[in-house]
Amino acid sequence: MVSPAKRVLYLIPESGLGPFVHRLRLFDLCGHVKDKRLFYRTMSAQDPWEKLTDPRILRAAEGADVFLDTAIRFMDGEENSASDSRQFADILFALQAAGTRVITCAHHSSKGFERQNTMSLETALRGSGDIGAMAVSAWGLRQIDKAANRIHVENLKCRDFEPCEPFRLEGRPWIEQEQSFRMIAQPGMVAPPKPPREKTPAQNKADQLYLAVKALKAQGLSDEDVAKQLDITDRTLRNWRASGKL
Q1: Sequence-distant (≥ 6) Cβ neighbours of residue 25 within 8 angstroms
Q2: Chosen CATH of 8-106 out of 3.40.50.150, 3.50.50.60, 3.40.50.300, 3.30.470.20
Q3: Over the chain, what is the mean pLDDT?
Q4: Is the pTM value of this prediction over 0.90?
């Protein structure tokens, strides 16, 4: 059994400080920052991003669990290039040799992934096959319900261990209420996800409006200001909040 992380280094150059701290608060993780168990670096850092081979990064990663969100931001060259992917693998191995306990990389899926009714390493990982080859384990995540943020999770590769069967998690309203996802289908109790149906223009417009509301609320705007800025009614916001969306 793997012991819990004593220290985590989360590197996320795709997010600014404000949105990332908002996520920390949602998941009730700010206490780990104060206890110096969780360290992070966002695109808001004043000094330029350094490579993972920078001595400061290597010192900070010693004995820590490291998260790279997303992996492509730490690669030199093209993700479709096998040679560039192998160079990235060498960098990760050097990070591991410096004392990193675990390296977890978030990565995007390939084009057409959303139309597949089965998951595989080839469809779930964009770019060269060497990206998947370097991993000890790979897990595919597919959002099957946007409003509830329902996620299908499935192991796509494992080395030296027996993975669990696919399972499903749900984000809304549990993140706001319980500071975590809730498992709504245990391993072995779910079928492969079906490709999502094409949404109507009205559904796409509603999704865009909902994301705009979430973004403004994350900035600290009141319901009145959000409604005025997006030209919607207070009743719409009340209904979303009552249903657990906000």
Answers
A1: none
A2: 3.40.50.300
A3: 85
A4: no
